[in-house]
Amino acid sequence: MPAHPLVADLPLPAAPLWGALAATPSGLHQAVAQDVDEHAHNLTAWHQQYDQLGAGCFVGRLTEWRLPHIQVFREQTSQALRQSCEVWADSFWFGVPDPAATLPTRINGRLHGSHDVMVRPGGERFDLVTPDRHSLFGVVVQRQALQDAAARQGCHVDWDALHQAEVLRVQEGARHACLNALDGLLPLSEPHATGWHGADLVAMEGAVLSLLLDLLDTSEADTAVRQSVARRQKVVAHAREYVLAHPDQAVTVPELCERLHVSRRTLQYCFEEVMGLSPIQYLRAIRLNGARRHLREAARHGQGVQDVAARWGFWHLSQFALDYRKLFGESPSDTLTRGAH
């Protein structure tokens, strides 16, 4: 696979700074959620939708520093998720999995190596599939702020390579230093944010920018996308779109094969590589997550569990309740009741 160096000793012209988080107050923010949608909305200035794939009650924890031009966060999730994400515009996101994580993450259908760093530009959707008991450090930096910092340090960032990349191959020393610094900013125990003033936040932002430039200076961007991975990701995306377009139908694997013009074996391979799940498992999870979202709003519209189940193609209520409890750790009626309050 071709790789491209990202940083060279060439100056770039400076430009005025403007942060996408300017409308939100700087400082430390923390949140705990017991629902994947609530958790997805807790991350500032992101457009996200999460589907729960792992079985059991969900708990999501987020610790986030909002700085003038940078967002630094630690995200912990108890259950495996499919995440559809879009970072705020004119920025870059860098994702560094916690070294304690034992299972890999998939980004746009590609397995992410345990010693790599994920990256995506702002304003473009990307998909993650994260395992149970996942922990991730994230840094989102406004592009101009990174460019100005690179100019001050006499470095040039290859924006084209960075924009195309999904994975950065990073030297272990730089990655280890970055993880240690982020762990200090976002410890597992509750951070103490008292006494932080504007000058402290500016200094913190400068330190994070230096960490990112150190990573880029010792990394190569893997911009190669295998055609087979891209094709399989497209098959999975079309399957999801078809199921969501026909929510009241229990779409079968043979029906999907016919609609997508692929064999059953090809469909199986696509889902296993992109999602780490079989088509049947994923299709059921899509519908159950859709039913859960509907249940959280149903009581306000005078609807009950049976109405929602039928809306999502579950015609056997006892089996629906069994599958629902297995995935989410609670009954459909519990979700309906909680949504009413």
Automatic annotation (TrEMBL):
Molecular functions (GO terms): DNA-binding transcription factor activity; sequence-specific DNA binding
Which UniProt keyword terms apply here? DNA-binding, Transcription, Transcription regulation
What Pfam family is a match, any one?
HTH_18
Tell me which InterPro entries the record gives.
AraC_XylS_family_regulators, Homeodomain-like_sf, HTH_AraC, HTH_AraC-typ_CS
Domain HTH araC/xylS-type positions: 237-338
Keyword Transcription regulation attributed? yes
- Its transmembrane ranges are none
Query: Which SUPFAM superfamilies does the entry link to?
Result: Homeodomain-like
Q: What is this protein called?
A: AraC family transcriptional regulator
Query: What lineage is this protein's organism placed in?
Result: Bacteria, Pseudomonadati, Pseudomonadota, Betaproteobacteria, Burkholderiales
